[in-house]
Amino acid sequence: MDESRGTDKSLADETYRTLLDEILSTKLAGGSVVQERRLADRLGVSRSPMRDALGRLEGQGLLVRNAKGVLTVRIITLADYLSSMAMRLLIEPSAAAQACEHIDDARIADLQAMLDAIAADPDPDPAFVWSFDHALHQGVGEASGNPFLADTIVQMRRYTTIFERQRKLAQRKPGLSDHQSILEALKARNAEAARAAMTLHLEQARQNVLASY
């Protein structure tokens, strides 16, 4: 591979990850106009990797064109949230059950340590709480052994995460007991318990959102 092409790809990947994180954290809020040149200047990259990163995000549905054809950050509606959560309820309990067979003890221990740190901290950093949530749900997807299922979980969680964060619906310590039940089932390699714990966790998250309306 040409060295310059490799550098461009690396920059595009880094730019994509940065923008994805800003969208998921709602630093780039829904409805915001995406100005390629301004973003490129802010991140200190040329317009080529920026254009590549924006194209990927648009392809994933996180950036959309408004009626005037202007690129904007997608606004995640309640309908989007509920549809995404319905998909998660269909597949994540099965992923959790399958993960019992494949997830390694070290990953479970890391997740438990993160959850213990959140529980012990009277005012945990929200970024760390979200990092744990991401690590748990993505870890379950990856450990399911089904890459298509894992990818769908990642995609659906993006919509639910953005919605919850843009409306500031997450609690300081959301779902501690739910998450602990999931980890206990994974530790015990109890597939049916993991399935039930994940179902309960997602359903309670859905109900909490509906209760806020």
Biggest sheet, open or closed, and with what strands and sense?
A: 2 strands, antiparallel
Query: What's the CATH architecture of the largest domain?
Result: Up-down Bundle
Number of helices: 9
Proportion of beta-strand residues: under 5%
What do we call the CATH homologous superfamily of the largest domain?
GntR ligand-binding domain-like
- Mean pLDDT rating: 92
Rg measurement, Å: 19 Å
Please indicate the count of domains: 2
Give the overall shape, derived from the CA principal axes. Answer: globular
Description:
This protein has 213 residues and is mostly helical. It folds into 2 domains: 71 residues, Orthogonal Bundle (Arc Repressor Mutant, subunit A); 134 residues, GntR ligand-binding domain-like (Four Helix Bundle (Hemerythrin (Met), subunit A)). Helices cover 73% and strands 3% of the residues. The protein has 9 helices and 2 strands, in the order αααββαααααα. It has a two-stranded antiparallel ribbon with strand order 1-2. A hairpin with a 5-residue loop joins β1 and β2. α2 crosses α3, α4 runs parallel beside α8 and α8 runs antiparallel to α9. The chain starts with a helix and ends with a helix.
Offer a concise description of the structure.
The chain has 9 helices and 2 strands.
Topology:
Blueprint: H1 3-24, H2 36-43, H3 47-59, E1 63-65, E2 71-73, H4 78-102, H5 105-120, H6 126-143, H7 147-166, H8 176-188, H9 191-211
